[in-house]
Amino acid sequence: MVLKFRDTARRESLILGALDPSERALLLALSKSCHYHGGKTIFSKGSPGETLMLIETGRVEISLTSATGNRSIVAHLGPGDSVGEMAVLLGSDRTADAIATNDVTGRLLHRTHLLQFLTDHPQTTLGLIADLCRKLQSTTEALADLSTADGGTRLAKVLIGLFERWGVEEDGGFRLTPSVSQSDLGDMAGLTRETVNRQIRAWELDKMLRRDGRDLILVDPDLLATRAG
Length: 229
Known about the structure:
Layout lengths: L13 H4 L3 H10 L1 E5 L4 E3 L7 E7 L2 E6 L5 E7 L4 E2 L1 H6 L6 E4 L3 E7 H10 L3 H25 L2 H16 E4 L2 E4 L5 H8 L3 H13 L3 E4 L2 E4 L2 H7 L2
Antiparallel strand pairs: 1-8, 2-7, 3-6, 3-8, 4-5, 4-7, 9-10, 10-12, 11-12
Helix pairs in contact: 6-7, 6-9, 7-8
């Protein structure tokens, strides 16, 4: 496995990428800008699916909470991703929570405007389908890992996904920024915070990772890939 680090400062949206410049300008004119501070709820599970957000900057956490109170983080989305499209297309309530993990900016599209635009510009639907398929594939792979992989392997795969998307190269490795708490890593890998802490300490001894305050620095990407199987 080879880690593919990407520059995600301003990744192109799959929806906007399906449009020519004039169509893109028209769609953006139908939207309105939005800004959420870190920790702010963008969408709540059960709320009406009236708007879709195109993320421009920042990171959005998508999570589910079971009836027993167990929380699972199913995705971290960033620039170029869309949030809330499923509920908007179905005209249904939200099925998950969306929280800004740091300052997030984007464009909000109301369902009425989006559906009319899709009718007038059907090629935009291809971008939506591609985005939904990508998210479904990622969720399916994560669920498969939860049922088959051991805890260390699951955590390694979670870290690979985070570092590939959010790792920033610096002297001595790649810094995960914004940082992700050990509790959140546990919610992504299906582990307790204590188990995550023990595993990270072990990987520090192996010189694979190091900690700098709350931040994780990936020192040996090849070894992390090996741990992921």
